[in-house]
């Protein structure tokens, strides 16, 4: 049976769009995302205007407010100009089984560094893909309209 995108993909906004960026985790500690119900997950990062080159990486944690640890290869840089700068879209996709699940690392966050603050903007969105149970729960801040059938 064919399922809709909204039944198969969990979506969550990770930051307040159009708010000047500061280094940190998105979502923040205490709100890390439990990814154990998904085969894979993606952080979509759309750069707005930037004065600073940013390093973005997906990290794992053993608790919703745990100390994040790097995931090998789950990093990219957003330049301040050119094809990877202003108004670019970056995706970091992680297969959940690549996390240190044996040690309880089932939470994920996006970590940003290099932001100067007042003139750097991104929009970060989390997508959980191929859930073990469908339909997926809906995040309170996501509005869905489906025209199908």
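Sequence proposed for the structure above (149 residues):
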């Amino acid at each position: 049976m064919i399922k809709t995108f909204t039944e198969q993909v969990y979506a969550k906004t990770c930051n307040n769009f159009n708010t000047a960026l500061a280094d940190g985790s998105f979502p923040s500690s205490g709100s890390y995302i439990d990814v154990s119900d998904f085969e894979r997950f993606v952080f979509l990062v759309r750069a707005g205007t930037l004065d600073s080159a940013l390093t973005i990486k997906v990290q794992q944690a053993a608790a919703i407010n745990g100390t994040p640890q790097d995931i090998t290869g789950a990093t990219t840089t957003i330049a301040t100009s050119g094809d990877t700068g202003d108004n670019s879209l970056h995706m970091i996709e992680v297969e959940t089984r690549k996390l240190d699940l044996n040690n309880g690392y089932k939470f994920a966050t996006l970590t940003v560094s290099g932001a100067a603050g007042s003139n750097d903007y991104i929009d970060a969105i989390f997508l959980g893909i191929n859930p073990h149970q469908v339909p997926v729960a809906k995040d309170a801040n996501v509005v869905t309209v489906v025209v199908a059938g």
